[in-house]
Each structure stands twice: as structure tokens, then as C-alpha cells.
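Journal club prep — side note

Before the paper discussion, L.F. wants everyone to see what a predicted structure for a comparable chain looks like in C-alpha cell form. Sequence:
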Amino acid sequence: MDHPEIDQTSKEQSGERAEREKTPAESADQRTADSGSHDDRNDIEMPKPLSEGRPSVAASEKALVRKPRIGDTMPIPTTPPPGPADPSGNGDESADAKSDGGQKRRRRRGGGGGRGTVRGGQAGDGGGRSAEQTKQPKSKGAQPRKGRRGRGRGRSESDGAADATLRERRRGRERNGKPLGRYFMAVQVRPGISQVAVLEGRSLIEHYVSRPADDVTQIHGNVYVGRVQNVLPGMEAAFVDIATPKNAVLYRGDVQYDPGDIEQRGSNPRIEDILKNKQLIACQVTKNPIGHKGARLTQEVSLPGRYVVLIPNSKTYGISKRLPDDVRKRLRGILDRVKPDEHGLIVRTAAENATEEELRADMTMLLDQWEEIAAKAAKVQRPTLLYREPELAVRVIREEFNADYRGVVIDDRRLFEEVRAYVEAFSPELSDRIEYYDPEAEQLSLFERHHIHEQVHKALDRKVWLPSGGSLIIEHTEALSVIDVNTGKNVGKSNLEETVFHNNLEAAEEIAKQLRLRDIGGIIVIDFIDMEIRDNRAKVVEAFRSALARDKTRSQVFDITELGLVEMTRKRIGEGLLTEYSEQCPDCEGRGVLVDYSMLD
């Protein structure tokens, strides 16, 4: 999975540049044919190259949507909240809710109650996002680990009391014995498909789909031993066979090497000096294959845990930038004591209230996992899968679940037991929020019970209605996605400029929600309705950026143009919600029209 905690600026800029340039499949095929024997699995479009279509540093910095840090809008409490929740019902509202106006919201009771629901044992804390780090070149290959216990001073008696305080703070809020939280997660399992829905209140904000065939198409985060098939000096990339139907692509910027192994000496050796045909390499998928484009690889493997991310054979060292300074200082001391000498470690936002023992246990589990991967890699002599990311529900729980969730309801007994055991291992304080839902006893499917299926239906439409009568039209093309804003039935009250301005404000909020729900990535162009007043344009863009700040996926939003267009990018990992529920029309082949060629006779 994607690990936003790792603030690898160069890698992120490369990923954004990759969404701006398209290389025809014919060019990649020609270079492949020129470099050696032809492989049908190389008949793919290259994931977009790294060097062109790059905005200036100043423009990129200005366009980057800043994620709110913990404590930005309200101070972090230094002691656990006393007793039960505030009777007013405002105590568990997050910083995001307060920053959006601070108005009192009516609380709804959730958690999937009913006669078909059974509560689990104990549970876990939520995933975090961005992190600072200092990177140095890492050594090649997997080495036996040493110094697992780390370095630094020992623990004092006061540390034990502090750990108890942290665990109590992590427990979350309750009212009348029922957990409170802004979010709710529902996991529905059917033969051949699993779906995960995340709700804020009763509104669907994220939806994930997984199928057995995803072992081919949803391979993000998997680790492989791959065989280099062709090196393309002109593209500064190589095709790599990873035992999937289409060869994956490894760019020069994602190659890790030992300078002592390079014959051609120099400060920046070329890819053909580092990689050779038929060479076996260890690599990890950073982007799923999309359409005709192959998967994208990196040789810098990262293994995500609940509280930390392990970067094997690296000097990477960092702590989430979303955490407040006092928490970062505490975690820095723990990191000094537990970090292994030969591996890198990133502390995630989820570790805000984690104890030293929990961080050490998480790191130890990841070290054992890496040793198993390295042992397999040393034995294989052909392209092989070394490590597969856990199934969808466990991944989402690992990245998302925390005290802000009032519950996680699963309608499959096997998966319920697996998820509950996973959560109990890391944060038992919340495990009673993991529940089993019995559809037979409830006489309704889980998604029907929480009105999720209705919202998914609307998310698959091309037209979205706005509260005041305006509308959005969402269309997808090969190169980008386009969103058109219309006034529709919104005729306003005073004058045209005010009507258009308020319609665009509504559209900005709704577009941010739709991008997240539909998982639309890549280049996105939004056609807002023209506004004459410059300040109104700035306010619309600012409102759009504020709404996008709640989205964990990295995005950039550039200023509105004279034509009323907003250009933006959103990191693209998969193909989006619509693709998961659809297939190409066999008649028009996805074009949307049927051409009458008989008129040419």
C-alpha cells in the first residue's frame, strides 16, 4: 500500500511528473525491439517518464495541498479526558469538524447495532500520513540483522506511568457504554468479491473493492524477485519480468545499487551500467498496472506496520510531520533506542499515543518479515512473488482504524476473527469496536442496513447534483479526467456574480468529496463557471484546497485561470471506482458512439 508517511520529495515529484507525460506504446516497442529479442509482455505503454511536463518548484510548492497537523485547530490534551463524554455531544468532534465552522452537529448512533451484531474483543489505533526523513544511499542485498535492541539510555520508572497514560488516551470516547466516533467502516464479503465502505456520519466517503483476480491487477506493495528483460537507455528505464502477464517498468530514479558493483565509474551512472539483461533483482510494486501501462517498480523496499514503516538496508530515519512537536520529541527518543543500525525506520502518525514496547514489537515483527523475504530471495532463480500485502480489509484497518471510528462491522466470520486478532495484537483498547454482522439474523445485507448501496449507485453516475440545484458532469479520457460545473436549476436571488460564486463554492466542496469517493487520480481539469471578481476566484480555489486537505491522497491544485479552469493532480494508484464496477462496451469499444461506416459506401 501507499505509505504517505514517507516524505520522499524527489519520488513524489517524479510521481507527479509521471502523470503529465504520455509515451506512445509504439515508441516503447521500437526501443524494445532494438535492444534485443522481443517479448510480447513488453507490448505495453510505459508508465510516464520522469523528465518532462514538470512545473516549476515555486508553482509545485504553491499548489501542494497541505494536510492538517494534529493540534492545528485545537490543542492536544496533555491528560486523558476525564470520565464520560461531554453531554453536549461535542467532545469527540475532530479538528476537521471544528475547522469547518465549529457548528454543533447532531450525533447519530452507529456501529451496526441490531440483533444480528456481535461485538469483538479489543482493537487498534489509526494510520498516519506524512513524515520527515533524511535519506542516504543504502547498501545492496539483504544482510542478517544485528543490533535489534538499538541504542541509547534505558527506561525509567516514569516511562511506565507515561505508557499507561498513553494507552488510556488512545481508548477513545464513549457515551452510555457506546463508542463515539466520526467514522464508521463496513466490510461486506461475497463469493469472489470483498468491499470496504468508510462512512463519515452516514455519508459514504471512501469505497474499496477487491477480487481474486486482483493478484494480477492489484499488486501495489507486493515484493518480487524479477528478471530484467530489456534495458532501454533512451527511456532511462528497464522492463522487468515479475511473473505477471505484463512486464513491469523500473525507472533509473528507482534503482538501488552498490557503487562497487558498477564497472562504469562516475557520480551518476546510467541505467545500462547498473542493470543487465537476465539479471535477477528484488523489487516492490509502487503503482498498479493501469490499462495498457505496466506496473511501476522500485528497488527501495518498504514494509508498513501499524506504527512504523521499515526500510530495509537503508539509513532513512524520520517521524511523521503531522505530529505535534512534543510528541515528535518523545518518539525521537524512543526511535534512538529501538532503531536497528542497518535498516531505516519511519514512525507513523498512528504512533502518536504508542508506547515504546508497542513500537519495538511492531519493528520486531517487520524485521522477522524482512528476514523471511530475504531468505526466500536468496534461494529463487526465477521471477517469484516474495511477499503479498494482506487482504483488503486488513490493509484498510492497518492504515485507517483509530479512536475516531465508532465501529468496524464485518459480515464474514473468518475475516472478522482475523481482523479482531490483528487489532487485539496492537491496540486492545479499541477491539470492542470490531463487530460481526449476521445478515441472516438481520434479514438485510450489511450495505443495505447502512444505506451504502444507494450511495454507491450515485457515485457511479456521471452527473452529480449540488444542494442549490447546480450540477457536476464527470468524464474520463485517456490522458485526464474532466469535471464541468453547471448552474443547472440554480437561478440565484440577487445577481449573476453572487449566484455563480456560491454555485462554485458548493461545487468545490462536492468535487473534493467525489475525487476521494471515486478514487479519481492523475491529471484533473475542472471547468468552474466564469467569475468576474478576482477575489471570488481565489476564495473558490482556497475552499477547494481546504476540502481536499481531508483527503489522505497527495494532491496539487493550481490557481484558477482566466478561462475559469483549475488544473490539479491527484496521486493515482488504481483505476478508480467506475472501473471496478464496469467493463468496456464490446460494440463501441469504450468510445461511447457507434460510427455508421455505411455512409462511406
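L.F.'s comment for the group: The first strand starts at residue 117 and ends at 119. Keep this in mind when we get to the figures.
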